[in-house]
Design brief:
This protein is an alpha/beta fold and about 280 residues long. The protein is built from 10 helices and 10 strands. The longest helix is centred in the first third of the chain and has 23 residues.
Length: about 280
């Protein structure tokens, strides 16, 4: 019997987080996934023990605020139920981004879906601090979305990498999710002055990747030349109606050496979702 596909969606009730929830509902219906909706409540540290032990000892104001927070969480879970998605809600206190990592590990999540920025984010400039930290500490793939994405547009994905022989596992992991989402897949390399490789070298690398996966999963392999990685990627996505970018989550130095950019920059400059695959996955 196939194990249930598990999606974790953290929420801070912002518009971006609600959009991530809408995307998650669509992907859950495509994949038959079970969804966990997680809220991390910020309350004064002195009250944490009271919350966890007995709400009866808490001040009325605090209880009212937590009641509102729980209702917001319940409303979002009900919204998923109304869309035919099996969902559960969870709330933790003052745990920060580590609550997301801990939940994904404890419940064996297959995927985390997060908004590019939450209540404190600045559109187009910053990735939310939680999202950024989760990206670089997770062992679970992270799907990062913005308010401008459309849930029904996810049909064609592109996997971007340096296609080094040591990182074939990241493509295999990306394919696992892309198949769950019923999307088509292309492989793509941007040849920039900073990461220049002879055409035959990168073509051979990409061919080795294609050989390592079941036949027919990759519909196209493309290489483009561009002065900057982001420029080449954005133009390719626009010209080919790409709906999602997937790439390994490299460390910053490795990322610059490998592809001439970072996953943070890709999220910043694109208006389509990005599926990050932890290095070594």
């Amino acid at each position: 019997m196939e194990e249930k596909y598990q999606i974790l969606i953290p929420t801070d009730y912002s518009e971006t987080a609600d959009h991530a929830l809408a995307i998650g509902a669509d992907l859950a219906k495509r994949s038959g996934a079970q969804v966990h909706v997680l809220h991390i409540a910020d309350i004064p540290p002195d009250w944490v023990s009271m919350v966890e032990k007995s709400e009866g000892t808490m001040y009325a104001m605090v209880k009212d605020q937590l009641g509102i927070t729980r209702k917001e969480l319940a409303d979002r879970t009900t919204l998923l139920h109304d869309k035919g998605v099996h969902a559960e809600s969870f709330m933790v206190y003052n745990k920060g981004y580590r609550a997301i990592l801990g939940h994904s590990e404890n419940y064996e999540s297959d995927l985390i879906i997060m908004g590019a920025h939450g209540r404190s984010g600045i559109k187009g400039l910053l990735i939310g601090s939680f999202t950024l930290r989760v990206l670089h500490h997770t062992n679970v793939p992270v799907f990062v979305t913005k308010k401008t994405d459309m849930p029904t547009d996810l049909n064609k994905a592109v996997f971007v990498s340096d296609f080094d022989s040591e990182h074939k596992g990241e493509l295999a992991e990306a394919i696992k999710h892309i198949q769950k989402f019923n999307m088509r897949l292309r492989l793509f390399f941007v040849n920039t002055p900073a990461t220049f490789r002879e055409s035959h070298e990168i073509q051979n690398r990409m061919n080795e990747y294609v050989k390592s996966i079941p036949e027919g999963l990759v519909e196209q392999v493309d290489i483009v030349n561009a002065y900057k990685f982001e420029t080449g990627l954005l133009r390719y996505c626009d010209d080919n109606a790409i709906d999602m970018v997937s790439m390994p989550i490299y460390g910053k130095r490795h990322s610059w050496e490998a592809i001439g950019s970072t996953i943070e920059d890709v999220i910043k400059f694109t208006e389509i979702p990005v599926l990050g695959i932890p290095e070594g996955k």
